[in-house]
Amino acid sequence: MIILNIIDSNLINNTLIFLNYLPLIFIIWLIYIWIKKDDEYMDIVLYSIYAVIIGFIINMFLGYYILFNVAFILSIALMLTYFKETRKSGMILLILGLTDIIINIYLNNIDQQKIIGSIIVASITTIIIYYSKKYLIELNQIIKAAYYVLK
Q1: Has residue 139 been placed in a domain?
Q2: How many independent structural domains does the chain possess?
Q3: Which of 92, 57, 50, 101 has the alpha carbon at shortest distance from 75?
Q4: Per the domain annotation, does 14 fall within a domain?
C-alpha cells in the first residue's frame, strides 16, 4: 500500500512538472511551424498568437489572469484544429491541454468556475479570430515581411 502511494505520488509529481512546461511546448511547436512551413502555416501561427493576445486581455478584464495558461493552451490548440493543415497537431495539443485541465481539477488546484470561464474565453477568441481572418491578412503580410527582412 505504501509503495503504491509512493508510485502514485511520483507519477503525480512528474505529471505536474511536465504540465508546468506545457505552454513552453506549445510555443516551441508554433516556432517550429513558423520556421519549417510555408506562408499559409505562418498565417495560422499568427492567428493563434492573435487569439492568445485577445484571450489574455479578456482574462485580465475578468480577473482570470491566474488561469492564463488554460486560455493560452486552449487558444493555440483550438486555432490549430480549425485549419486542415494543422488539425492533427492541434488535436494532440488539445488533448494535452484538456489533460492539464482535468488534472488541475482533480487536484483542486484551480477553481472550476474560472476554468470554465477560461475555456469559454479561449473558445470565443479563437472563433472571433477564425471568422475575422480576412481582416487580418494585411497585418499578417506586414509581420511576415518584417520577418523576411530580419531573416
Answers
A1: yes
A2: 1
A3: 50
A4: no
